[in-house]
Design a protein that fits this description.
This is Major facilitator superfamily domain containing 2B. It is elongated and about 60 Å long. The chain is built from 4 helices and no strands. By secondary structure, the protein is an all-alpha fold.
Length: about 120
């Protein structure tokens, strides 16, 4: 999806060049931030449930919290992501390499993407 987004941006803004790094670095940045937030939330959830490090026998609340973190949370987040994806503006018909741009020859693509 990210390469399609970059191509879509380049087609809509043909005179703007060099923004690929912004897209990719933003993706990596927010991916790392969300991973850190997710780890923090799961650690806090386990601590609130009574998790004790180094102890073999854990309370039942820890087992329940692990079930929630492993099953319910990912299912909810995936469902939310799929719902948001319904409103994603780039489809097979509208993406830059679709039928509307099939007629561009090599020179047309070079001009469009600023390459020789």
């Amino acid at each position: 999806m990210l390469p399609d987004l970059v191509d879509h941006f380049r087609v809509q803004h043909p005179h703007s060049t060099g923004h690929e790094t912004i897209f990719y670095s933003s993706y990596v940045f927010f991916h790392k931030i969300s991973a850190g937030i997710g780890l923090g939330i799961s650690s806090l959830s386990l601590e609130f449930a009574g998790f004790q490090s180094g102890v073999c026998k854990q309370p039942q609340s820890v087992a329940t919290m692990l079930k929630i973190l492993i099953a319910a949370v990912p299912a909810t987040l995936i469902s939310t992501g799929l719902f948001i994806l319904l409103f994603y503006p780039i489809t097979e018909k509208t993406k830059p390499l679709g039928p509307a741009f099939a007629g561009l020859d090599k020179a047309g693509w070079s001009h469009l993407f600023g390459r020789n």
